[in-house]
Every structure is written in structure tokens, then in C-alpha cells.
Amino acid sequence: MLLMLTLLWGGLHAAAEEKGEFPALNDAGFLDSGEFVWEDEENGVWRYASSTLRVEIFRREQKKPARVWYEAEVFCAEGSVGPRMIANDPEHWKTAANMEYPYKIARKYGTVFAVSNDFAQLRLQQKKSRPGIIIRDGKIWSDRTKKKGVKDFPNLDCLAIWPDGDMKVYYSDEKTAEEYLEDGAVDVLAFGPILIRDGKLNEEALKKYGTSHAQRTAVGMVEKGHYFFMMLEGRIKRSKGDGISFLAEKLLEKGCTLGFNLDGGETACIVFMGHQLCKLKDGKKLSSRRTSDILGVGTSELLPAVSDPW
User: Model-level pTM?
Assistant: First the structure.
């Protein structure tokens, strides 16, 4: 069993930390100072807490049908930086030569928690494609998208992220890139479909898109500052994967008012403290595919170096 506990503030707390439970938190649900890290791979539990961030991850398992998935609940303190897109090389964001494994991007920037992205850089390299509305750190990379309701998957619905941690979901052609910037969004991802909007499942899209059994990744928001991330393993013995409706229903159960499907397959991953948690291949430790950026939150100096074993 991989088990680690890090306490970086004055005074040790008693039995709670020995079992991996969060130490005493303040009224806002965070530490007054320092950091707490717990990693228990054998039992599938990971936790992190600081004065601005709280993360709790559980690995869930089901035998029939065979499924393994990860549920990550994230709380960000008011006024802190929420989930954002973190680029491996912001100046050469869409260049294939500058892509990197997600866990290495997390280590490079000390990102506490992250999942995979919309893999927009692939579509941006295809001259005749419509990459979708793509914005990173306030810069428009693409304003060409598909019409709402197309049969293609991904349908290029959008997830927009604001500096204060707010998130909103929009249909592919509901807004232009310029309108997103005018509204104050700093990152816009294009993949989809929308899983949940205004607290209701996107039933039409769930029947139409992503119905095969595969690896899946999704993000949901209960309210600003409170998020859920889901990652489903697939195409391996212990987990056959599923359609996007599986994660959509899980996010709704958690109380999410919005949910968005991110790229799955070999892109799908979940990373905590610089380590990839999910399994991608039987009999071999394998990273998800290289990418230009990750959707991440939190920073810490406790992560391993980029060159350290993963």
C-alpha cells in the first residue's frame, strides 16, 4: 500500500491523520495554514488540503459490468484561483513538438490536481477542420465551429471558465469567441457534448453522442468554488468503460448544475500531486497521450520533479 502523510504546520493532530482523514478544518472547510496530503493507492483514496484548496478523490469499482472510475470533489476558497487550463508551453500552445504527458505538465507547474483536456491542438493542426471555439488565457486560437445539433462527435459544445472560478456551458455556436472574451471568460474548451445544463441532463445529446464503451472524462460544477471531476477507465480487464451518460448521471447525483464531457480514449486521465492515478493498459504502466495543456487546480511545492519516476 502506498501511503503518505505530509504535515507542514505547527503541532501534530492525533488519530484522524493516521487514518488519512482530514485534520481539523476551519469554518470555511480549509486549513488555517500549511498543507495536508494523503495518498492510499491500495484503497483508492487521495486527499489534499491547504488554506485555499481541498481535494478528495475516491476510486470506485463495480464488478458487473466491470467498471473502475474516479470521483474527485474539489473546493476552492473564495477569492482563490479556481480550475484553469495550464499549458505546457503557452507561447507554442498548438505545436505538436511542445506537447507533454499530463503528469509531467502537473509537475512542471506544481499543479495539485488535474484532468485531461479537449485535445484541441489536434484539430487546430488540421487545416480544413473546424476546431471549435478555442480560447486559452484570454487568447483566441480558433473561432470556427460546427452548428448546433450536428451528428459529428465531438459536437464542439463549449465549457467557458472565468478567473473567479465560475464555469458555464454553451452549445457549439451559441456564442462567438469575441463574445466570450467580452463576457470575461479566460478559457474556453470545445469538445462536448454538454452533459448537464441548469441542473438537467442533456437527454438528447446523451442518446446521440458517445454511446460506445470507452475511457471517459468529465467535469461538473455544483456552484462556483465547488466542483466534481470524473474519470472512467476503459478497454482493460478491470474496466470496460461506458458511454458518456454514465458520468453524466454520476455528476447529477453529486448535485452538479452543469456538466461537460472532455476528451476520452487515450487522452483521458486524472492526476494528483504529479502522479497519474488511472490505469490505461493491462500489464503495463502507461501514461495517457501527450497533450498541450491540462485542466488543473491548486499549486504546491510538494510534487516530484518532472524527471522523477512516476
Answer: 0.94
Distance separating alpha carbons of residues 210 and 195, to the nearest angstrom: 11
Which pLDDT does position 17 carry in this prediction?
55
Question: Count of domains in the chain?
Answer: 1
Question: Whole domain around residue 211: which residue ranges?
Answer: 52-299
Q: Is 266 a member of any domain?
A: yes
Instruction: List pLDDT tens digits, range 93-152.
Output: 877 788 999 999 999 999 999 999 999 988 988 888 899 999 999 999 999 999 998 999
Tens of pLDDT along 237-282? 999 999 999 999 999 999 999 999 999 999 999 999 999 999 998 8
- On whether residue 203 sits in a domain, the answer given is yes
CB 270 within 8 A of CB 276: yes
Looking at the domain assignment, is residue 171 inside a domain?
yes
Asked whether residue 7 is assigned to any structural domain, the reply reads no
Q: pLDDT tens-digit profile of 223-234?
A: 999 999 999 999
